[in-house]
Amino acid sequence: MTPQSDSIAVVTGGGSGIGLACASALSARSVSCVLVGRRQERLEAAAATLGASATVVTADLTEPGAPERVVAETLAAHGRIDVIVHSAGVFEKAPASQVTPDHWQRVLDVNLSAVMALTRAGWEALSQSGGQIVLISSIAAVQAFEGNAAYAASKGGLNALGEVLRLEGRERGIRVITLSPAQIDTELWDGKAPERVRARMMPAAGVGELVADLVGTDRRIDIGPVVIRPVQDPWVEPEP
Ligand SMILES: NC(=O)c1ccc[n+]([C@@H]2O[C@H](COP(=O)([O-])OP(=O)(O)OC[C@H]3O[C@@H](n4cnc5c(N)ncnc54)[C@H](OP(=O)(O)O)[C@@H]3O)[C@@H](O)[C@H]2O)c1
What we know:
- By secondary structure, the protein is an alpha/beta fold.
- The protein has helices spanning 17-28, 40-48, 66-78, 101-129, 149-172, 195-198, 204-215; strands at 8-12, 32-37, 55-58, 83-86, 132-136, 175-181, 184-185, 202-203, 226-228.
- The strands form two sheets. Strands 3-2-1-4-5-6-9 form a seven-stranded parallel sheet, sandwiched between helices. Strands 7-8 form a two-stranded parallel sheet.
- Helix 2 links the parallel strand 2 and strand 3.
- Helix 1 (17-28) packs across helix 7 (204-215), helix 3 packs parallel to helix 4 and helix 4 packs parallel to helix 5 (149-172).
- Bound molecules: NADP nicotinamide-adenine-dinucleotide phosphate.
- NADP nicotinamide-adenine-dinucleotide phosphate (NAP) binds at residues 12-13, 15-19, 37-39, 42, 60-62, 87-91, 110, 136, 138, 181, 183-184, 186-188.
């Protein structure tokens, strides 16, 4: 089933970047979005750009019980969940030898464990709606970059989780889509890439459109892991 006009999408990381771009594109297709993140003001400002149907649930998804609360509040307000877009994530870099236990745990907690917890919490509701799960993974899951030990481990784990969910979801009528993008110009790159490099990254809005299009495709199509990249490596200076 493709999303109907009464469809409800829970979008984690919906207050910024790719999550907000996904919510924006889904809203344009008449899907009501529930934006999830830690910063309430940021979420409310984002929701205001989406129209009256968008709502927010403020939650740190790594806190015990938070994913279950997100699902409970969404069901209490809307009665159903058709899509969960998992876009909440953190990007922290350090050489592997300098990754502290805190760094490792924080990245794994947000990028992998919280995704599993929210998926588990929402599984029954998605089974009832014949819903869909979108995992915003990363090219780092399949391509090595220096300084990415924890991030790559979290996203590699996410891709592997996505494949298991894709199989198990079939039995419950749930479609799972794993998207592994390379560089997208969002605030995740603040302080990590200069403006001229960011200008060559993919636009978040285009990625949001892609996600909404994938969610809207015929449900008889099983969508394997999807890798997207900028046409040219943004870190490579173009020929003068
Ligand atoms: N930008 C890229 O080049 C790129 C490429 C590949 C994959 N990705 C992935 O895309 C996803 C979105 O990143 P982005 O580029 O859109 O960057 P972003 O704007 O920094 O988005 C990250 C979002 O995650 C939320 N978040 C972080 N920790 C959270 C927590 N504990 N609980 C709930 N929400 C939390 C943040 O909201 P709060 O701070 O309000 O909680 C924020 O809205 C991430 O998973 C990232 O790994 C990004």
